[in-house]
Design brief:
By secondary structure, the protein is an alpha+beta fold. The protein has a single domain, classed as GTP cyclohydrolase I, C-terminal domain/NADPH-dependent 7-cyano-7-deazaguanine reductase, N-terminal domain (GTP Cyclohydrolase I, domain 2), CATH 3.30.1130.10. Helix content is about 35%, strand content about 25%. The chain has five helices and four strands. A four-stranded antiparallel β-sheet has the order 1-2-3-4. It is elongated.
């Protein structure tokens, strides 16, 4: 039995892997949940003119994130910057469909951060439909 957890880490570091038994590269998933933005997306002119609140959830995977080793903030993604990029994509133009909005956000995150996969969900908490619902949402997912 190993009493010192550091000894276990040393044992794992010293273990050699054959080509067939190589340790899998870890992947980092970054998630931002509940980003609330005032936007002007929708089918009707009223939705695009008056605007409405959307709530976005974002998740993307990075295969190469040095912060896993260095523990340095500058070696990871700035979450505030990700939120700013999503806000820019969501507010710089108006789309009729949430599908197109989500695709625009996905495109921006792939280009900016080199993400291996990206998932963007956009929800309308007060959709303009005549029946009571909590929200309507669309999710777009892409693997590069």
């Amino acid at each position: 039995m190993i009493d010192d957890p550091d000894e276990l880490d040393d044992d794992l570091d010293e273990r050699e892997f054959d080509d067939e038994d190589e340790a899998p590269e870890p992947t980092v998933t970054i998630e931002i949940t509940g980003l609330s933005l005032y936007t002007r997306h929708g089918v009707s002119d009223a939705e695009r003119e008056l605007g409405q609140r959307l709530v976005l959830d974002i998740a993307f995977e990075l295969a190469d994130c040095d912060a896993m080793v260095t523990d340095r903030v500058e070696d990871t993604i700035d979450y505030a910057e990700v939120c700013e990029q999503v806000a820019l994509a969501a507010q710089e133009r108006s789309y009729k469909t949430l599908e197109r909005l989500c695709a625009a956000v996905v495109d921006r995150l792939v280009r900016r951060y080199g993400a291996e996969s990206v998932r963007v969900k956009a929800a309308k908490p007060e959709p303009p439909i005549p029946l009571p619902v909590d929200e309507v949402s669309v999710e777009v997912w892409r693997e590069t």
